[in-house]
Specification:
The complex is a heterodimer of chains A (116) and B (111). Chain A has no helices and eleven strands. Chain A is mainly beta and 116 residues long. Chain B is globular and about 45 Å long. In chain B, strands 2, 4, 5, 9, 10 and 11 form a six-stranded mixed β-sheet that branches. A five-stranded antiparallel β-sheet of chain B has the order 1-3-8-7-6, with no helix packed on it. Chain B contains no helices and eleven strands. The chains are: A mainly beta (116), B mainly beta (111).
Chain lengths: 116, 111
């Protein structure tokens, strides 16, 4: 299993450009998430999808849109990039709880985005 | 006040030392608790879940105090390879399963 994959790994954009970050998981998880991580701020939730066909805003959704294309794929789109969106973006999926075990979140390797 | 608070560190300790990290959370309805490890420029990975009775995995011991809304991680006999950022994570539970991350505590184990 590849787990959670993300593309691209690195990206440089100019202010106003658009792009889509791709994420896919092969673990058959229902829930998927997009986070951004900035120094001193920790991981902040942008959007999440509890199941195929549903998406909800997280803590910092402004400037982003998402699509849950199918159970495997959850993409994040920046329509008009701004320097404040320079960050590391992580996609994650959540395993279901099993017996006495809690559910576990699995992360992709991240996309390092710079907006000039 | 942040929902999950951690001392950012850094904690600089010699090899072989015992080090403890603390974390507090403000939402009393939180249902599950975790410690994640994040290496420099890498994604977070689950280190261990934290159960009400406390749990141990080798050199690592995690404890939960629901009454005080407090979580701890103890690392014994520190190794150079333990150097990383340790993230305290709380799951609010419910249908959405939102995980709330602390900002992390940086550990540097010195030779």
């Amino acid at each position: 299993n590849a787990g959670v994959t993300q593309t691209p790994k690195f990206q440089v954009l100019k202010t106003g450009q658009s792009m889509t970050l791709q994420c896919a998981q092969d673990m058959n998880h229902n829930s998927m998430y997009w986070y951004r991580q900035d120094p001193g701020m920790g991981l902040r939730l942008i959007y999440y999808s509890a199941s195929e066909g549903t998406t909800d805003k997280g803590e910092v959704p402004n400037g982003y849109n998402v699509s849950r294309l199918n159970k495997r794929e959850f993409s994040l789109r920046l329509e008009s990039a701004a320097p404040s969106q320079t960050s590391v973006y992580f996609c994650a999926s959540l395993s279901p709880a099993s017996g006495s075990s809690y559910n576990e979140q699995f992360f992709g390797p991240g996309t390092r985005l710079t907006v000039l | 006040r942040k929902e999950v608070e951690q001392d950012p560190g850094p904690f600089n300790v010699p090899e072989g030392a015992t080090v403890a990290f603390n974390c507090t959370y403000s939402n009393s309805a939180s249902q599950s608790f975790f410690w994640y490890r994040q290496d420099c420029r890498k994604e977070p990975k689950l280190l261990m879940s934290v159960y009400s009775s406390g749990n141990e995995d080798g050199r690592f011991t995690a404890q939960l105090n629901r009454a005080s809304q407090y979580i701890s991680l103890l690392i014994r006999d520190s190794k150079l390879s333990d150097s990383a950022t340790y993230l305290c994570v709380v799951n609010r539970g419910g249908a959405t399963n939102k995980l709330i991350f602390g900002t992390g505590t940086l550990l540097a184990v010195q030779p």
